[in-house]
Amino acid sequence: MSGDTVAEDTRSRLLATALKLFSEHGVGGTSLQMIADELGVTKAAVYYHFKTKDEITEAVAAPALQELIARMDEAERQRTRGSQIDHALGGFVDLIVRYRSLIALFNSDPGIMRAIERSLDGVETFAARMRKLLVGPDPDLATTLTANVLLAGLALAGGSSEHAHLDDETLRTHLFDIGRRMLGRPKRRPKTGTGVAEEGA
Amino acid sequence: MSGDTVAEDTRSRLLATALKLFSEHGVGGTSLQMIADELGVTKAAVYYHFKTKDEITEAVAAPALQELIARMDEAERQRTRGSQIDHALGGFVDLIVRYRSLIALFNSDPGIMRAIERSLDGVETFAARMRKLLVGPDPDLATTLTANVLLAGLALAGGSSEHAHLDDETLRTHLFDIGRRMLGRPKRRPKTGTGVAEEGA
DNA sequence: GTCTATAAGCTGATAGAC
DNA sequence: GTCTATCAGCTTATAGAC
Questions:
Q1: Which bases of chain C are contacted by protein, using any atom under 7 A from a CB?
Q2: What residues 5-44 of chain A have any CB closer than 8 A to a CB of chain B?
Q3: Is the shortest CB-to-strand distance from A156 to strand D under 7 Å?
Q4: Which residue is nearest to nucleotide D6 (CA to C1')?
Q5: Residue B129 class from Cβ within 10 Å (0-12 exposed, 13-18 middle, 19+ buried)?
Q6: Inside any domain, residue A192
Q7: Model confidence pLDDT, tens digit, residues B134-189
Q8: Could you tell me if B84 and B149 lie in one domain?
Q9: What is the spatial distance between Cα A4 and Cα B201, in angstroms, rounded to a whole number?
Q10: Hey, which of A28, B17, B60, B117 would disulfide with B28, CB 3.0 to 4.6 Å?
Q11: Are residues B68 and B43 part of one domain?
């Protein structure tokens, strides 16, 4: 999956560098010059791989976003409400843990959403769709707020540098338990492989 | 409190405009030109009120930050743990509600923290101090994570445009209850005036 | 207080050599 | 694939007129 050709390696290193700098300075606060310097190449070399800055932003965000869609699709196919909730929550927590800073970036930086809205439509409905999976189609205000606090909190706290030292399994388990507790569900272990996309770990 | 002189009015309108644009585009994504245009003045006029962009960023953030410190001081003076928690949580929720988008900005935009660190030291310990008030000095990992998810979630969800239509009292009550529930405390009404700084409402 | 004018520098982006 | 060189445009910031 990594290191096929030199170009692909540079491309993936470029995306990793961009993500790191986006997390530290925000999308707007990160220039192509900064990315190029950190990579040890020139701006023009960066432009060989991506035509525009927006293209970089999209490429940084796309994999996690598509995986999130896949996880929500999967959750919607579950027959019981309980299983739907566990799949949606488990999938979300999985993504937070595996992409860490990226997911936090979604909740925070306005720049990344703007860049993605142009390529993927309906991005702002992501949170709405996830919330619907967690608390049903017609939640009251208290339930809606609880779900929003939970989703934003999981993403931001999970991506925080304060917990960067925690291994994936530990972080995943704890975040999942917090989610279940906030949603009023009994404590339980998450199955590590909720389904799709475990191969990347 | 507002509209003493023309200059002070312009100054406060400038800060309100800056906050609005910071929320929409991030600190790095907002230029002085944008602020000036939105205000209907020139860039040079903006520079009359503030020497640098960082100074604007600091001035936008300072009032909420100093109030947060005051609230935490007050909470620490409480004698019982329960009262400490209620004061800290209530004070935090009060600030979220009253400043809305600003507090969300702290949790997200890296630019605002960088600007403030230069003037106010120990900004990164704010979250740590608040967490200590909420869950004590030596929490286990699960408790630490719960507090971090709660603090980040309250701030981000409370500042979300999705809840902009909610009146202060409604939002405050619900966020406070969510906080108490996550901290494992029985449900209760927050006293609207937990102490200081109710006059601004 | 707000303006015009301007400086110096960084931005995203392109063209063409190697 | 990466480089140097260059572009127009925007950035923060200053000087001085009104």
A1: 1-5, 10-16
A2: 23-30
A3: no
A4: A44
A5: middle
A6: no
A7: 999 999 999 999 999 999 999 999 999 899 999 999 999 999 999 999 999 876 66
A8: yes
A9: 60
A10: A28
A11: no
